[in-house]
Amino acid sequence: MYELLKTDGLAKRGRLHTVHGVIETPVFMNVGTIAAIKGAVSTTDLQEIGTQVELSNTYHLHVRPGDEVVKKLGGLHKFMVWDKPILTDSGGFQVFSLAGLRRIKEEGVYFNSHIDGRKIFMGPEQSMQIQSNLASTIAMAFDECPSSVADRDYMENSVNRTTRWLKRCKAEMDRLNSLPDTINKHQMLFGINQGGVYEDIRVRHAQEISELDLDGYAVGGLAVGESHEEMYRILDAVVPHLPQNKPTYLMGVGTPANILEAVERGVDFFDCVYPSRNGRHGHVYTNHGKMNLFNAKYELDTRPIEEGCNCPVCRTYSRAYVRHLLKAKEMLGMRFCVLHNLYFYNKMMEEIREAIEAGRYKEYKEEKLRRMAEGE
């Protein structure tokens, strides 16, 4: 159940009650694609840095170690030793981005594994079955993620098929949640809005899927090559047509600035690989913008990555030491940068929630963006 606690303009401060605990929103979900955060970050680390939700990937876990294996081991929560909410994405995006050779049919998608080339079929029912085996808190509907530059005819046909697939996902999820051997019989289902950069297709699709009364709604198919301005234009058009009394999730987004802008437009769930990916390359986020710790100017810098930051790295280590580790290709350097970045994102979401509660979100957003743009 989702409680809308406060609004400030379109910005929402909410609370999603789940079988694995409460999610305070707006929230950033820390991405652990294969049931692990890249950069040697453990679930005990996630607890320490204030993570609320971990996100894992249906496609990757289906390919390896296999969702049946995870089910035999008691589900994802037991497998990775994490007792808070987990969201699994449906595998749709990976099927379309990784598969290369694929055939889309009404029943689903035929494609080859990117690991060993074996033939795989995935459709709405299969995606729900895999996610049920993983026993995540929130399952995502199986959708087609068309190219953002697809023409109007293709996009309309694709979105109509995604709606038909969503109805099949809902029916299958209801069936699975009623079975005696299902690990999580309270698994939630979020639907996904598609339509590329065509506002009218997006709005019509949002209205159609809203009628299905799902647990939450995502906006998919953005952050895949269109400009930030186009993304904000689509959010301005679409979010008002999604239920305000349900979570709104912007998939795969994004930079701190993207998140700040999207919160102002009514989005309250986010995920992105940026903090971990950038961290593994020595790029760290601060309230004064992004820093590249490989820069020579940090060689003798005894300050923490960010002064006043309470992450496990900044409490103890200097920029000079972290830079040395990175230069030496020591894994600890990557780990430190990823830990700091995830803490920064989680802390920013906490600040966002407080600002909405205080009715001063716009001022907070503008001040945060100004500081990050100024640099050190």
From TrEMBL:
Pathway: tRNA modification; tRNA-queuosine biosynthesis. Its cofactor is Zn(2+). Substrate binds at D89, S90, G91, G92, F93, D143, Q194, G221. Its EC number is 2.4.2.29. GO terms for molecular function: metal ion binding; tRNA-guanosine(34) queuine transglycosylase activity. One of its GO terms (cellular component) is cytosol. It is an enzyme of class 2 (transferase). The keyword S-adenosyl-L-methionine does not apply. Catalyzes the base-exchange of a guanine (G) residue with the queuine precursor 7-aminomethyl-7-deazaguanine (PreQ1) at position 34 (anticodon wobble position) in tRNAs with GU(N) anticodons (tRNA-Asp, -Asn, -His and -Tyr). Catalysis occurs through a double-displacement mechanism. The nucleophile active site attacks the C1' of nucleotide 34 to detach the guanine base from the RNA, forming a covalent enzyme-RNA intermediate. The proton acceptor active site deprotonates the incoming PreQ1, allowing a nucleophilic attack on the C1' of the ribose to form the product. Homodimer. Within each dimer, one monomer is responsible for RNA recognition and catalysis, while the other monomer binds to the replacement base PreQ1. NCBIfam families: Q_tRNA_tgt (TIGR00430), tgt_general (TIGR00449). This is Queuine tRNA-ribosyltransferase. The gene is tgt.
